[in-house]
Design a protein that fits this description.
Pathway: Cell wall biogenesis; peptidoglycan biosynthesis
Radius of gyration: 43 Å
Number of strands: 27
Protein name: Ig-like domain-containing protein
InterPro entries: Big_10, LD-transpeptidase, LD_TPept_cat_dom, Transpep_catalytic_dom
Largest sheet: 5 strands, mixed
CATH class of the largest domain: Mainly Beta
CATH topology of the largest domain: L,D-transpeptidase catalytic domain-like
Number of domains: 3
Pfam families: Big_10, YkuD
Number of helices: 4
Keywords: Acyltransferase, Cell shape, Cell wall biogenesis/degradation, Peptidoglycan synthesis, Transferase
CATH architecture of the largest domain: Beta Barrel
Distance between the termini: 140 Å
Length: 421
């Protein structure tokens, strides 16, 4: 009986050890299965050469598709720069590659035009930048393998202490005569005319060559070689904001205006015959007797453009070098032909027989009229009502010199070869 418990104990102990060894076997089998799964996920069989599943690229040999681009983009001015000059400071270059995209725009999305060089090594703007404006630059370059490298920067241009604008004529939306030039008078004398002229664009439909000419350092006029064609649409773009017109003085104007050329009217005054023939679209529609400048105060010869119209105005000889010879407070139907005081206007103080027979004025072209400009049947009223700013009045056969092209809007008196020189 003593042996039974021992035997029973032995059997019991042996059973527990057997179960433990069975558990170890199961864990080993599970681990083996896991190893097979991991081997399958790792790519299957070991490649020939015995490198543990790593190909040549994984060992550092051969071409690497995810390598960084060798192209280096450089943008000047540096990111975050302020008080940047509006001309000459913006530059984008690429080393060890070629630029493919360069975009420069202000905070409103307005883009700056520019060009990538033929060799792809640089980009430069084709116009100046605006003052006191933030710009964002985005540039992309590719290396010899076609891999891209990009760079983005932001900078702000200077705030000018001294500025200028241009006062222009004709007005936006107006209809003017065929002789009307685009004339711009600047509030400061310009010492870099090329930069200012480059920032002004004048175009026409139908297209015609239009060139600018400077009169002194504060006036720039534009015109075609010959009078505008009737019906032409003209557009003027003033992109002066940021242009350094003189050292430390910048334009602050960005404006677009347009005007239309009306019918063609060119009137010819013959000072000797004392007549004015009004030609409309190639036909003489009226011949009007006139009085021109007296022998001691002759009228300029030349092509003159009507620049202002006044139904009634005051004319004082003291303002144009004639002292107190006259001061007429109610000159009717007056239209300015020169800055020095030449007008075509109504005359109510001379006798009716004067017109067409004698030259008695102080240099103006006079037409018979009624005081107060109230009689529409008078020749001066007829001509005034049928004239617009920009119409041409040509004076010939006067015993005077030709009017200077800068005296009024009278650049037509300058030969085209000299105008474009």
């Amino acid at each position: 009986m003593n042996g039974q418990p021992i035997s029973g104990t032995s059997v019991g102990t042996t059973g527990r050890r057997g179960r433990r060894r069975g558990g170890v076997r199961l864990q080993a089998l599970a681990a083996g299965a896991m190893l097979l799964v991991l081997t399958a996920c790792g790519g299957g069989e070991t490649p020939a050469g015995g490198n543990g599943g790593q190909g040549p690229a994984a060992q550092g040999g051969g071409k690497q598709d995810n390598a960084a681009s060798q192209a280096v983009v450089t943008i000047l001015p540096k990111d975050g720069a302020d008080a940047v000059a509006t001309s000459g400071a913006l530059k984008v270059t690429a080393a060890q590659g070629k630029l493919t995209t360069v975009t420069v725009a202000d905070s409103k999305g307005t883009k700056v035009e520019g060009e990538i060089a033929a060799d792809g090594a640089s980009w430069t703007p084709t116009a100046h930048l605006a003052a006191a404006t933030q710009y964002k630059v985005h540039a992309v370059a590719k290396d010899a393998e076609g891999r891209e490298s990009a760079k983005d920067t932001t900078f702000t241009t200077l705030v000018p202490k001294n500025t200028f604008i241009g006062h222009y004529t004709p007005e936006d939306g107006s209809t003017v005569g065929v002789g009307m030039p685009v004339s711009i008078n600047f509030t400061r004398g310009i010492t870099d005319p090329d930069a200012v002229e480059k920032a002004i664009k004048v175009t026409a439909v139908p297209a015609v060559e239009i060139e600018g000419h400077w009169f002194g350092n504060d006036r720039l006029d534009f015109r075609p070689e010959n009078y505008w064609a009737a019906g032409t649409k003209v557009t003027v773009e003033l992109n002066l904001d940021g242009v350094e017109g003189r050292p430390g003085v910048y334009g602050k104007q960005k404006k677009k205006v347009s005007f239309t050329i009306g019918r063609r009217q060119v009137s010819t005054v013959d000072a000797s015959a004392k007549t004015m023939k009004v030609e409309r679209d190639g036909k003489i529609i009226k011949t009007i007797p006139i009085t021109a400048g007296a022998p001691s105060t002759t009228t300029y010869n030349g092509q003159m453009v009507i620049s202002e119209k006044f139904k009634v105005t005051r004319m004082n000889g003291a303002t144009v070098g004639f002292g107190g010879e006259y001061d007429i407070k109610d000159v009717p139907h007056a239209m300015r032909l020169s800055q020095s005081g030449t007008f075509v206007h109504g005359n109510y103080w001379a006798s009716a027989g004067t017109f067409g027979s004698a030259n008695v004025s102080h240099g103006c072209v006079g037409l018979q009229d009624a005081r107060g400009a109230g009689d529409s049947s008078m020749p001066a009223a007829w001509f005034y009502d049928r004239s617009i700013i920009g119409d041409v009045v040509v004076v010939k056969n006067s015993k005077d010199k030709q009017i200077k092209p800068e005296n009024g809007l009278n650049g037509w008196n300058m030969p085209w070869s000299e105008w474009i020189a």
